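Reading a protein record of the kind used here takes only a little practice. Each token is a code from a learned vocabulary of local backbone shapes. With that in mind, consider the following protein and its fold in token form:
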Amino acid sequence: MTREEMLARLERGEDPLHLSIDKWYDLFCHLISINSISDYDPSLQDDANNCALCEVHKGCRGCPIARYMNGRHCLGTPFYDYQLAYSYRNLYEMRAAALAEIHFLLFTEYLRHHPFRRLLYRLERFARRFGFRNIKEFILAFFI
């Protein structure tokens, strides 16, 4: 999904999180379809310039990703793994990071509508009390 397509769909009132999921799905399909990094189309992933969530939630205010990660600019998400893989021009790692980002966004969508959101919020506060930035860090420290 290019920036123009994303903006048009936002104007029609589509959910920015759903658009982000679609964008990463399109990007993943593109990465699977190419055999060489030289065939990569950079217009599909143009950082915040092609992110529906960034377009709607300027400065990360109200962004579901910032809320669940307790941070700004998608810190701690697979987005940064993708950026690193792209900087090394590693197509395999780019595919893995794009797929991880899709899973992350789908989980965020699930949490946004989950009936136990209050419980999640309380767990988040509990994790922060012990010095963790978010639930993900807490779970990784104790259960993995």
About this structure: The chain has eight helices and no strands. Residues 15 and 52 are 8 Å apart (CA to CA). Helices lie at 3-11, 16-33, 52-56, 64-69, 78-87, 91-113, 117-129, 135-143. Residues 3-113 form one domain.
